[in-house]
Design goal:
There is one protein chain. The protein has 2 domains: about 90 residues; about 220 residues, BirA Bifunctional Protein, domain 2 (2-Layer Sandwich). The protein is built from 13 helices and 10 strands. Helix 5 packs across helix 11. Helix content is about 45%, strand content about 20%. The strands form 2 sheets. It has a 7-stranded mixed beta sheet with strand order 1-5-6-10-9-8-7, with helices on both faces. Strands 2-4-3 form a 3-stranded antiparallel beta sheet. The chain is an alpha+beta fold and about 325 residues long. The radius of gyration is 44 Å and the shape is rod-shaped. The longest helix is centred in the N-terminal third of the chain and has 41 residues. The structure holds 3,4-dihydroxyphenylalanine (DAH). 3,4-dihydroxyphenylalanine binds next to strand 9 and strand 10.
């Protein structure tokens, strides 16, 4: 009997090693250890044996049962672990699934151009200054040597704000007022650039926007000459566009500089593109800010950031910058 049971235990062990799911395991469990199993039936026969034999046979039966139980436990553990791994795999959330469809945004072209300009000028030792977009006539005109009767006032196409005395409050028509605000508040030497929004009554067309962006430069120090101005413009253009682009100054007129010039940059085809105005800061402007023109001299310049972006990215129409068409903006 014991030998038969040993054989049963060996079968059980072999079949349990190959069982592949928990249901089959339950069936095997009943087959080998249940009420109708050979082991249970054998146990029932123990009562008919002599006490010594009974003891020995009982011990052997328990030992065999123990082995089968251990095999079942091992199979259960294996199958439970498999089932859990399977469930984890099935319920797994793939958080990377849609990754390719997420479109990253980018900074607007004008912002990119402004950031780049700031980087270039900061690299040359300038700091960034700012001023308000709503200005008084003093900062936008008078302190810049443009008195009320001056014909240049008309050329700025100013958008006035209906506040206080007529034509005394306005949206700034250029960033030059930041020169005045800086000189009022800062002891020379001064090396600043002031980027910001500016406004004029212009109707939008391929080369004009009524709200646009300028960057102003101002240097006040001792012994500053027109040569420093030319060198600064040359250096910034080289850094901004790369080595190929040349610059030139042409005599011009602005009330706030003397002498004044316009500066051009060379196009790939050899022609010239006008970028902005510049000159040596007029002594009246220095005096208006409490700076002694016999001790300090300086230069200033100003130009449009949007136009620079149009040039750099070869756009046909400046209005693309404000149409907010994502198909256009995404390209940059
Ligand atoms: N403010 C002038 C404009 O908007 C540009 C300009 C010209 C700025 C000469 C300057 C300068 O600082 O020196 O047309």
């Amino acid at each position: 009997m014991i030998e038969e049971l040993e054989q049963t235990a060996a079968d059980a062990s072999a079949r349990l090693a190959e069982v592949t799911d928990l249901d089959s395991l339950a069936t095997l469990d009943a087959e080998f250890l249940g009420k109708k199993s050979a082991l249970t039936l054998a146990k029932k026969q123990l009562g008919g044996l002599e006490p010594d034999d009974r003891k020995a046979a009982g011990k052997a039966l328990n030992e065999i049962r123990g082995r089968i139980e251990a095999d079942i436990a091992e199979a259960r553990q294996r199958l439970t672990a498999d089932a859990r791994a399977e469930q984890l795999e099935a319920e797994r959330l793939d958080l990377t699934e849609k990754r390719d469809e997420i479109k990253r945004g980018s900074l607007h072209l004008v912002t990119q151009s402004r950031d780049r300009l700031e980087d270039v000028f900061v690299g040359m030792g300038f700091t960034i200054a700012e001023g308000p977009e709503v200005e008084s006539a003093w900062y936008n005109f008078e302190a810049l040597n443009i008195p009320e009767w001056h014909p240049a006032r008309g050329s700025f196409d100013t958008i006035f704000v209906n506040l206080g005395e007529p034509e005394q409050v306005m949206l700034r028509s250029h960033t030059s007022p930041v020169q005045i605000r800086t000189m009022e508040n800062t002891e020379p030497p001064i090396y600043i650039v002031a980027p910001g929004r500016t406004f004029r009554t212009d109707t939008a067309d391929a080369t004009h926007l009524p709200a646009f962006n300028q960057i102003e430069g101002l240097v006040i120090d001792k012994g500053i000459t027109m040569g420093d101005l030319a060198g600064t413009i040359d250096e910034f253009v080289r850094k901004f566009f790369g080595g190929e682009v040349k610059t030139r100054l042409r005599p011009s007129y602005f009330p706030f500089t003397e002498p004044s010039a316009e500066f051009d940059i060379s196009r790939p085809d050899g022609s010239w593109l006008e970028l902005g105005g510049c000159g040596m800061v007029h002594p009246n402007v220095l005096r208006n800010c409490g700076i002694d023109p016999d001790v300090w001299q300086g230069f200033a310049f100003g130009f449009g950031i949007d136009r620079l972006a149009v040039m750099r990215y070869q756009l046909d129409d400046i209005r693309e910058l404000v149409n907010n068409d994502v198909r256009f903006l995404r390209q940059f």
